Amino acid sequence: MGDISIVALGVIGLNILVSWKGFNDHAFFDKYKFQVGSIIHNKEYYRILSSGFLHVDFTHLLFNMLTLYFFANTVIGFFASPEGFLFGDFSQGNLKMGYGMFLLIFLVAVIGGNLLSLLIHKKENYYSAVGASGGVTGILFAAIAAFPEMELRLLFAIPIPAWVFGILYLGYSVYGMRTNLGNIGHSAHLGGAIVGMLATVIYYPTILQINTYYIIGMILPLIVLFGMVLKDNRK
């Protein structure tokens, strides 16, 4: 694939510009952040997308953009030519499709993550969040669904198979969401992960046969999540 694509760099650049504006302009930050009350009661639906380009601070921004940078080419390459990329015969393929799918997954994962947050926190008018984490998690889990055996680095140091990381990450996110663990948008992460995995499976259904057990393993924490959501909605 070569160097990271102009599309991925564009997404990273836009995140940096919007986040930098938010760092220095509190009114701008407040206007475009995700906030349940403003979305539901004031119908400010743009926040569902705009909040995905804002970040709390530079560390938050850096972590998200590094993750996006590391997995961009993997996702673009897979969607450009899934069979070639999986079986070692990749020769550029349809790069426009790869670029388009990368951008689509990122944007839909931001929206999907925030919609799940809206569903989970709909009774909390003052619940707010920012960050590209939903979109970044969508890209990450699109890559994991395609290549579950690739090696990731837990805490940037400990080697771990991607499928193991995926199960642990999703399980931790479900637990964190349920217990309000830390100042983290766990529901946005989960929504983004769902979008990323679905995109890979829908685009290339054969991946279900190739990576059956890995994908089933990652689906289990999501089944628990939806059980919790259904239970809460009955109250």
Task: List the keywords.
235 residues; mainly alpha; two-stranded antiparallel ribbon; 71% helix; globular
Structure description:
The chain is mainly alpha-helical. Helices cover 71% and strands 5% of the residues. It has helices at 6-24, 26-32, 36-40, 47-50, 58-80, 82-87, 95-120, 133-146, 162-179, 186-203, 207-210, 212-233, and strands at residues 34-35, 128-129, 151-154, 158-161. The strands form two sheets. It has a two-stranded antiparallel ribbon. Strands 3-4 form a two-stranded antiparallel sheet. Helix 5 (58-80) runs parallel beside helix 8 and helix 9 packs parallel to helix 12.
Question: How would the blueprint of this fold be written?
Answer:
Elements: H1 6-24, H2 26-32, E1 34-35, H3 36-40, H4 47-50, H5 58-80, H6 82-87, H7 95-120, E2 128-129, H8 133-146, E3 151-154, E4 158-161, H9 162-179, H10 186-203, H11 207-210, H12 212-233
Antiparallel strand pairs: 1-2, 3-4
Summarize the structure.
The protein is mostly helical. 71% of the residues lie in helices and 5% in strands.
| N→C terminal distance | 50 Å
User: How do the strands line up in the largest sheet?
Assistant: 1-2
Q: Evaluate the radius of gyration.
A: 17 Å
Instruction: Give, in order, the helices and strands.
Output: HHEHHHHHEHEEHHHH
- Structural classification: mainly alpha
